[in-house]
Amino acid sequence: MDAILNRRTFSKIALGLGAASLPAARAQAPRKVKIGHTCITWVLMDRSSGPAGPGSAPGTARRGGGIQTDPAVIGQTIEEIAGLGFYGVEFFGQNLEGMEANGGLGRLLDKYQLPLISEYGGPNLTDPSQRKESIEKVLGWAKILKKYGGKVVVLGPNSVPRNSYDFKAYKDNIVTTLNECAKAVADLGLTAALHQHTGTCVETRDETYAVMEAVDTRYVKFGPDIGQLQKGGSDPVQVVKDFLPLVQHMHLKDFSGGRDYLGYCPLGQGKVNIPAILDMMDGKTIAGMIMVELDPSPGMPLAPLETARIAKAYLQKQGVAFRI
Fold it and tell me: pLDDT tens digit string along 42-61?
């Protein structure tokens, strides 16, 4: 009996020593990435530029086609993104254009020490009759971007009726327009990056691969939206891995399929394998920046600032550092 008790006592002591000798759970190593935030949660308005619906969080707006250009809203966007320590901001081309008529962005960017990194807005990719005019529009935004030190023109595809859309019938137009637009952007000393998007002419995995494998990658780079990839039925990790050499910008977004935020959600609350994405981007030099993004929707449960705080806290747990 004593021998049995001794063995038991010894086992307990050994187990205790073993547990004590184990190293503490390793904290996530610091990542070599800089994270910015897009403006969309703050500034995207409906076509009538109306206020948010009843029950919406302060500072939010209805989801729709018009883009906010109110200097007060633009200022709030810059102040809050800068205040959380993000490294840069992305605006829509229409934001830049609208602000030029109100003294420009320079004063606000300087006041809050927040770099303008990129602008979102692409030409019509499917209608060749609109090619020249829509490329000129993009170049107008690109020149404003360059004026304030920005680097990347994010080319968002135009919307199409997905239920009747025939990608093969439009592929050549898409590729031609992307090549021409990206070459013109490069002539300005900027980088053009395709951003695939649900509900547009480049949505699915097959469409994304077909376009990126056909364009002139000397000029057309890739700016994936990983949340849009997840929502569109693709594996974001695999897509980023396959095109990693061409990734020069990114929208870092999570997707849960819930009611709010068009199915997207604050970082870390959805299905996207964000740590795997960060692993691939860790230490990678890109022309633009990894940009947190969360699309707005009617009756958002949280104000834009709160969703950005959630994103920051999540990213800090992943080893991402912020300016403050």
Answer: 997 433 333 333 233 333 33
User: What is the CATH class of 32-317?
Assistant: alpha beta
- 3-class DSSP state for residue 35? strand
Q: How far is CA 215 from the centre of its chain?
A: 22
Crossing angle between the packed helical segments 71-83 and 304-317, to the nearest 10 degrees? 20
Characterise 285 by phi-psi region: left (phi > 0), alpha (psi -120 to 50), beta (else): beta
* Separation between Cα atoms, residue 77 and residue 89, nearest integer Å: 9
What predicted TM-score, i.e. pTM, was given to this entire model? 0.86
Q: Measure Cα distances from 307 to 82, 196, 286, 324 in Å.
A: 14, 23, 26, 17
Tokens of 173: 């137009």
| Per-residue pLDDT band at 15 (split at 50, 70, 90) | very low
Domain coordinates of the chain in residue numbers?
32-317
Q: Please check the confidence at residue 227 and state whether its pLDDT lies above 60.
A: yes
156 close to 222: Cβ distance less than 8 angstroms: no
Rounded CA-CA distance 228/236 in Å is 9
Answer yes or no: are the C-beta atoms of 194 and 211 closer than 8 Å.
Answer: yes
In the prediction, which pLDDT does 66 show? Answer: 59
CA distances from 111 to 3, 83, 150 (A): 76, 11, 17
Residue 54, both tokens: 């009843």
- In angstroms, the CA 159 to CA 323 distance is 36
Average pLDDT over residues 90-108: 95
Of the candidates 287, 157, 276, 190, the residue with the CA atom closest to the CA atom of residue 226 = 276
163 burial class (0-12, 13-18, 19+ CB within 10 angstroms)? Answer: exposed
Lowest mean pLDDT among 237-246, 274-283, 293-302: 293-302
CB 296 within 8 A of CB 63: yes
